[in-house]
Amino acid sequence: MELKLTMNNAELRNEDELKSRKAKKFNLWLGMIGMFMMFAALSSGFIVYTASGVDKGIKTILPYAFIYSTAAIVLSSITMHLAYNAVKANQTGKQKMFLLITIVLGVVFFFLQVNAWSVLFERGITFVNSNASQSFIYVFTGLHLAHIIAGVLVLVRCFIGAARNIAPSDNLFRMEIAAIFWHFLDLLWIYIYVFLLLNQ
Amino acid sequence: MSTTVISHDAAHHGHDHHHETFLTKYVFSQDHKMIAKQFLITGIVMAVFAMLLSILFRIQLAWPDAEFPILEVFLGKWAEGGRIRPDFFLSLVTIHGTMMVFFVLTAGLSGTFSNLLIPYQLGARDMASPLMNMLSYWFFFTACVIMVASFFVESGPASAGWTIYPPLSAVPTAIPGSGLGMTLWLISMALFIASQVLGGVNYISTVLNMRTKGMELWKMPLTIWAFFLTAIVGLLSFPVLVSAVVLLFFDRSVGTSFYLSDLVVGGTILPNEGGSPILFQHLFWFLGHPEVYIVVMPALGLTSEVISTNSRKPIFGYHAMVYSLVGITVLSFIVWGHHMFVTGMSPFLGGVFMITTLIIAVPSAVKAFNYIATLWRGNIRFTPAMMFAIGMVSFFVSGGLTGLYLGNAALDINLHDTYFVVAHFHLVMGSASIFGMLSGVYHWYPKMFGRMMDERLGYFHFWLTFIGAYLVFFPMHFMGIDGVPRRYYAFTEFPFMEKWVSVNILVTWAAIVSAVGQIAFLWNFFASIWCGKRAPQNPWNSNTLEWTTPVEHIHGNWPGEIPSVYRWPYDYSKPGHDADFIPQTVPHSQTMSSNLIHDWEGNEYGIAAQRVYDKEHNRETEG
Question: Where does the Heme-copper oxidase subunit III family profile domain lie (chain A) (predicted)?
């Protein structure tokens, strides 16, 4: 009797855990909608502002660094996917390797963006600018970078979890959440980049 | 992560208790019921604070030349010689608006009742993420503390109006309130947005993922529909305010020119150039307009539930009520331009915004008519909650009507920024939402505290507040039509406004009397926590699930299994049934004498059984 009861409880806890995980994943999707709205607001702000005068607009060719950073983040999405596949196949070693590559690519992305800023700055396109369309470039990329920092922290947490050999189901769930978020950041960057390219 | 103990075994549940300390039970609680109470009490404290601010500026408006030495005792340099200083007057209206709109009617209303009712009425043990829920409250609390703290800053609190339009808000040297006070306002607001997004994500997720067996979307009470759609509106609009505030922050602190251009402050030309203050208004009102629906929709939901229960009748047009909420949700995002008709917007665009705005009258009117149709020939119980619900409908109608005038791009040239606007939104969103909220407090108090509130004090509170609110806001329409602008410090400075000072005296006295009347509520609310009559299981004979939970709160809400749901929540006075209510947990097999064929929703066995029963009992039902 006692045994049956504990089992029952364990099962229930398990079921509850599943339900709560489903809800957490759903929360992440909702959160991403919120984040997207923030960038959508900036985009519409940019459009409204840029349309307000002929002297407004980006009025420069976007730095090449953005092409490299785009390549880096797309590549990191692929390695993230490989890491996720490795977890599903229960290959922790492979998972850690790909995860580490993803983190490194994330950091590379970060520095490439900063590098792009310095290119812009050398051209005289500063953040404090009477043509705020150009300031918008910094706001878009800066806010995206803030999210990238958060994303890298999430990845690091995954890596630590994998390194400490946490329970496989926890590991998988962490990776799933991190992968969704990381792909979202990738797509978000592509959206921003295309948006800026179309307006340059 | 969920700390809720979920054991379907009641006996087991009893002794397997985690030890709760004062800190985890009352302070850092992750229980939705406790968080709801935290939101409510914080909201009430903020409401009292914001109300006192309004009394202060009402005193200035009624007696612009008189001196009240007592003001100097309390306010010091803000009221030198017993007269409120002009810049402090601006702070008062700004913070009054901010606190009422965001802290009382957004967090205090949605935060309280979404937290309380979503798990209760849907049959869930708790929210999807109790931790996020707790964070939501503490972000909100911190935001409140920072906003109040801005009164203790040398240069005073923010004073650019609750809409914080640049350039006033963006140039720290423009007025005293645009200095540190404005910075604190922005920090407080950032925390508040975080709180709302965390809370809103949780509400949506809980509604979609955690419903009990049988609780289909179309069996949800209208309260839940309202909270759900409100949360969606919040999730889509608050992040936009983040963007607006981030750009404002850069303009203030870094020197960018998103919103600023061609400014001269105190004889010096500011370096900012090329910005557009209109840009801020677009971004702000893209949140700001949905925000007023965030404020009013939960009140509409609560009112639906209270009116139906206390009319002992099904809500009239349940589907129409839901669709009109959906309609309001969608339309709320495409009407923001009506706040900006006079910013030089192209007349064509103004026409578009005018049309979308006026279309909102349709779902709003559907709701108002449905409330009245629900009351029609009802067996009405005038409980205090019901009085406030009817009062809510009254304000919603009388304030909504003036919306038609303001939504008209041509009339708005005359009416914008006058007291007509003040009258309009204080009735339709201020008073209506406050009444919806109070209605909810009176109705669900037994569920929150296990005690009843005093009815007589409730009626006293209702009549004072109801008459007081109309006396305060109704005369403002006439001032507005006469062209009296809002936010002006002293009516004596302009000859054409002087005649309105006498009206201001009436308004101020009405405000003071109804403010004093709130003591009846506060006494009733706080004393009843300890001294109220003990609440019975289901004090209002209501159908919804929360009344099946024990009066004494327990972790996980239901001691045994969560009840299943078999019917919609509005089976009141169903012909053929012996009681005038049938809770959602009663299966149709137990109510053969009152079932209609369509109640079986195509269940063949049920329909067959029903036909046999009807034949045996000589009952006629529709096909």
Answer: 1-200
A144 to chain B, closest Cα gap in Å:
12
For residues A84 and A181, is the Cβ–Cβ distance under 8 A? no
Question: Given CB atoms, is A18 within the 8 Å cutoff of chain B?
Answer: no
How far is residue B517 CA from its own chain's centroid? Answer: 21
For residues B435 and B386, give the distance between their C-alpha atoms in angstroms, rounded to a whole number.
10
For the entire predicted model, the pTM comes to: 0.92
| B313-344 pLDDT per residue, tens | 999 999 999 999 999 999 999 999 999 999 98
With left for phi above 0 and alpha for psi between -120 and 50, is residue B130 left, alpha or beta? alpha
Are residues B276 and A52, on separate chains, in Cβ contact within 8 Å? yes
3-state helix, strand, coil in chain B (%, to 5): 70, 0, 30
Domains in chain A, please, with CATH?
Answer: 34-198 (1.20.120.80)
* CB neighbour burial string for A96-126, b if at least 16 within 10 angstroms, e if fewer: bebbbbbbebbebbbebbebbbeebeeeebe
Residue B4 predicted with pLDDT over 60: no
Cα–Cα distances in angstroms (integers) from residue B222 to residues B215, B324, B390, B415, in the given order: 13, 11, 16, 35
Give the minimum alpha-carbon distance from A39 to chain B in angstroms, rounded to a whole number: 8
Q: What is the pLDDT of residues B547-596, one digit of tens each?
A: 999 999 998 899 988 999 999 999 999 999 999 999 999 999 999 999 99
Domains and CATH numbers, chain B: 29-531 (1.20.210.10)
- CA–CA distance, B147 with B152 (Å, rounded to integer): 10
Q: Among A67, A60, A68, A71, which residue's Cα sits nearest to residue A120?
A: A60
The three-state (H, E, C) secondary structure of B193-254, written as one string: HHHHHHHHHHHHHHHHHCCCCCCCHHHCCHHHHHHHHHHHHHHHHHHHHHHHHHHHHHHHHC
In this complex, do B129 and A5 lie within 8 Å of one another by their Cβ atoms?
A: no
User: Is B239 buried (19+), middle (13-18) or exposed (0-12) by CB count in 10 A?
Assistant: buried
